[in-house]
Amino acid sequence: GGDHTITYPILQAVAEKHGPVGLVHVDAHTDTGDTALGEKIYHGTPFRRCVEEGLLDCRRVVQIGIRGSSYDPDPYKYCREQGFRVVPAEECWSKSLVPLMGEVRQQLGDKPVYLSFDIDGLDPAYAPGTGTPEIAGLTPAQALEIIRGCKGLNIVGCDLVEVAPMYDVSGNTALLGANLLFEMLCILPGVKTK
């Protein structure tokens, strides 16, 4: 729950204990904006603030499912300049993400990793209950492949954000969010699932 702003103070606390961490970030948006309406802290800026404070090991940051409108002709330039791997949604369409997650596990290695999942990474056909829906997103099956693909990583924390149940009278977004959180708990180090 909550908007993506909550990840910023969480990563401050995580970095106090672990130093800069890797990040698996599932989202429709990079959340690396600088300001909105003159404010430097809002749900579209947390990862820029994290970079500025040295909370992320930028060579170990992967953003998956990124898409949607932008005011910038090169909306991923900042991320690439930091060393992030950006996987746009169109690179995920109509295929399994198991091979991608094999690459991600290799890139992230055995150092600490944080998993941050914005529900708008999923297509609004599955998760309309969010404040900033973007068409042509990931499927629930792909979301499971991403989360399950993180098993074996040194996960030191995770979140699921931007669920807004009042925008989905069916309750499906909340159900999907709860299931994804359960899956995240199952991949934490030391959790036995078999």
TrEMBL record:
<dbReference type="GO" id="GO:0046872">
    <property type="term" value="F:metal ion binding"/>
</dbReference>
<dbReference type="Pfam" id="PF00491">
    <property type="entry name" value="Arginase"/>
</dbReference>
<dbReference type="InterPro" id="IPR006035">
    <property type="entry name" value="Ureohydrolase"/>
</dbReference>
<dbReference type="GO" id="GO:0008783">
    <property type="term" value="F:agmatinase activity"/>
</dbReference>
<keyword id="KW-0479">Metal-binding</keyword>
<protein>
    <submittedName>
        <fullName>SPEB protein</fullName>
    </submittedName>
</protein>
<keyword id="KW-0378">Hydrolase</keyword>
<comment type="similarity">
    <text>Belongs to the arginase family. Agmatinase subfamily.</text>
</comment>
<dbReference type="InterPro" id="IPR023696">
    <property type="entry name" value="Ureohydrolase_dom_sf"/>
</dbReference>
<dbReference type="GO" id="GO:0033389">
    <property type="term" value="P:putrescine biosynthetic process from arginine, via agmatine"/>
</dbReference>
<dbReference type="InterPro" id="IPR020855">
    <property type="entry name" value="Ureohydrolase_Mn_BS"/>
</dbReference>
